[in-house]
Write a structure and sequence with these properties.
Helix content is 31%, strand content 16%. It has 2 domains: 169 residues, TIM Barrel, CATH 3.20.20; 95 residues, no CATH class. It contains 9 helices and 10 strands. α8 runs parallel beside α9. The C terminus is likely disordered.
Length: 299
């Protein structure tokens, strides 16, 4: 591992990979910090599988979303620092004891060097699972290339099409270009592993910004492929600093969500899932079978 840190598009240059080094902009230091881990059954079907996805939730994040529901660990860094050996122990537990389908790395970017080292340790023991790289999409292609062995399936968000919104809502300059480049990279690799597709793109509809979700779907259909599996999500709930920041202080309306699901149909997306509109109904229905007239209330 070498300083300065340039793992994410921010390229903050922090001297963080040595004892006594300064943390990065994200707050990550010289050890991987984990908030929790375990089998998870709420991901998209090919990722969840039958035995669940082995989620490892890393503390800290390369973005600072006003509405983050995970702010205790993403903003404030709750969690436990682990040595690389201890991280390997967590991964071994998930693979051997819990028998999960995959290792699902949730917001792993600040800790990629440690994850790769732990994975190499386990590979020597014959312990291997596919990797899901689960992130906001705010990634550098150069980092994706370097750590491609940790990305059998990219589970990336396309959150914003406007840099102005990305900065205001998530302090993420250059988000649109970075996330789109990451999506292109993942789809361009092709393949996938077993039941895992190479890429799933999550479209979280944000209040007051349904137009950006539609713009990202249009870009995805025209510049990448309408064959990309997409997961259209209605689950936005105002949280943390969003509670006092319009328009993020309110839920998404049924009209906003319906405009996005209708656009997904119009752009020809048939692979993927659409979430039920009601916040109490998080179930995912198949996109291709459920794009009828009642776009906003599919279950």
């Amino acid at each position: 591992m070498a300083d300065p840190c340039e793992l994410c598009p921010r390229r903050c240059g922090a001297d963080r990979f040595r004892d006594g080094g300064a943390p990065g902009w994200c707050g990550a230091g010289n050890l991987p910090r984990l908030f929790r881990w375990g089998p998870h059954f709420g991901e998209e079907p090919p990722i969840t599988g039958e035995r669940g996805s082995g989620c490892i939730f890393f503390s800290r994040c390369t973005m600072k979303c006003l509405y983050c529901q995970n702010s205790p660990w993403s903003w404030r860094g709750a969690g436990e620092d682990k040595s690389v050996t201890e991280l390997a122990d967590v991964m071994r537990q998930l693979a051997v004891a819990d028998r999960v389908e995959n290792w699902n790395l949730v917001s792993p970017t600040p800790y990629l060097p440690f994850v790769r080292e732990a994975a190499h340790m386990l590979a020597k023991e014959g312990v291997r699972l596919p990797f899901v790289w689960n992130s906001s999409g705010y990634e550098r292609v150069e980092t994706l290339e370097e750590y491609a062995g940790l990305c059998d399936c990219a589970l990336f968000d396309l959150r914003y099409s406007s840099d102005e919104t990305a900065v205001a809502a998530s302090q993420a300059p250059g988000y649109a270009a970075s996330a789109r480049a990451a999506v292109k990279w993942a789809w361009g690799r092709g393949g996938g592993t077993g039941a895992l597709p190479p890429l799933v793109v999550r479209i979280l509809v944000l209040p007051g910004h349904a137009d950006e979700a539609i713009e990202n779907l249009a870009w995805l259909a025209t510049e990448v492929s309408s064959e990309v599996p997409v997961s259209v999500m209605a689950q936005y709930t105002p949280a943390y600093k969003a509670l006092e920041t319009p328009p993020f202080d309110r839920p998404v309306t049924e009209e906003e969500y319906g405009s996005v699901t209708e656009a997904a149909a119009d752009f020809g997306f048939g692979n993927g899932w659409v979430q039920g509109f009601e916040a109490s109904d998080p179930k995912l229905a198949l996109l291709g079978e459920n794009m009828g007239a009642d776009h906003g209330t599919v279950r």
